[in-house]
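Run log // design_07
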């Protein structure tokens, strides 16, 4: 039997499994169903984090699975929405670019400085929430067609701002840590 403490990891795994049907539904313009599954994924993300913190059910596996699930879901959603012309390519490139910069920085830090523990900043959490909200907003707008173009454009620019700010925050924070570690070592 699976221990309850594994529930957060199972929820993260569920999010990873939901990526394929969400992408397929978006590609087939089944926006209502895609919205439903994306909302399930969002709730599972919030629930796994809450359970892990509330009951101390954290694990190394969970610290990897959770962000991987988030990134797979968001990156695939932005790519598909970009391909469908629902999200501008400049925003898709910014979202992907930020993630690539963070991964490249983490690898550089690991190989040049040493091991580290990923600590998502408040700004990074805000950016993830904004990116998720934008996907929900865009897909919901395909279902209900209720938003003005100005509202959607404002959401695009808000996500761009938090994406750039979060990426810069990671670069500055981890560059400073690397410099201090190398200087003191």
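design_07 sequence
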């Amino acid at each position: 039997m699976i221990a309850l403490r594994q529930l957060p990891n199972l929820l993260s795994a569920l999010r990873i499994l939901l990526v394929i049907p969400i992408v397929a539904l978006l590609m087939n313009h089944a926006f209502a169903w895609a919205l439903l599954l994306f909302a399930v994924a969002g709730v599972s993300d919030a629930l796994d984090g809450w359970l892990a913190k509330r009951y101390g059910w954290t694990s190394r596996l969970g610290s990897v699975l959770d962000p991987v699930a988030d990134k797979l879901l968001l990156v695939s959603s932005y790519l598909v929405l970009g391909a469908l012309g629902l999200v501008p390519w400049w925003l898709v490139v910014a979202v992907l670019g930020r993630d690539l910069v963070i991964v490249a920085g983490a690898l550089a830090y690991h190989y040049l400085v040493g091991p580290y523990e990923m600590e998502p900043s408040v700004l990074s959490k805000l950016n993830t929430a904004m990116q998720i909200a934008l996907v929900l907003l865009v897909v919901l707008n395909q279902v209900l067609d209720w938003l003005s173009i100005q509202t959607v454009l404002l959401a695009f620019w808000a996500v761009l701002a938090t994406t750039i700010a979060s990426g810069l925050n990671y670069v500055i924070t981890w560059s400073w840590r690397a410099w201090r570690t190398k200087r003191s070592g």
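Residues 4-184 form a domain with the Four Helix Bundle (Hemerythrin (Met), subunit A) fold (CATH 1.20.120.1760).
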